[in-house]
Amino acid sequence: MNLSKKKISRLISIIGILFIAYKVIDFTYYYTFNGNDDIHFLKIEESKNHNYEEIFQLDELKNKYVYATLNNRADWKDFREDINSMKMLQKKYNKQNLIFLYTADDINGFFNEYEWKKLIKKYDLKGYHINLPQGYEWNLQYSRKTDSGTVTSFPKYMIISNKGKIIKKSVTRPRNAERLIFELDSIMN
Questions:
Q1: Domain 35-188: CATH superfamily, name plus number
Q2: Please, are residues 181 and 170 in contact by the beta-carbon 8 Å criterion?
Q3: What is the C-alpha to C-alpha distance for residues 22 and 42, in angstroms, rounded to an integer?
Q4: What is the mean pLDDT of the chain?
Q5: Which of the chain's termini has less CB crowding within 10 Å, N or C?
Q6: Which of the 8 DSSP states describes residue 138?
Q7: CB of 179 within 8 A of CB of 172?
Q8: 127 DSSP β-pair partners
Q9: What are the sequence ranges of the domains in the chain?
């Protein structure tokens, strides 16, 4: 079949237009996604200096235990490895007084709101999500002893009491489900 240059050019133009239309629809869908019955987005004022204790006092989190996942742009690759385990934990604790909180920072930099919401929707990350304002101060570092000395660490997972207080600053990752279930059960019971 011999296609003329004009027909090939027209075909390429149509494909280009369809691709652009797809990208616009995709962007609009995820960017305007504001949650559903299982996925909730919480907002905090950008102008106010927050600390985690204030976040844990939000009305939506009150009187519940919270398994908090603290992510920044560098953590998303590791976090993806924990997603299946998170889903198993959510099923196990579905009827109990435990909710899941996911925080993300640097949304306005490397990781924009569109990409953030796309990941949440793609992986069906049930729970509460907070997009932390740029420049948010974590103030959660702690020191731990290792064979080579003392290391300053930053927690990735925490357990918050039903009173909004940090119970445990560094909790087992979801991929070590047995140990994490033991930790959660011993704290909640």
A1: Glutaredoxin (3.40.30.10)
A2: no
A3: 29
A4: 78
A5: N
A6: -
A7: yes
A8: 39
A9: 1-32, 35-188
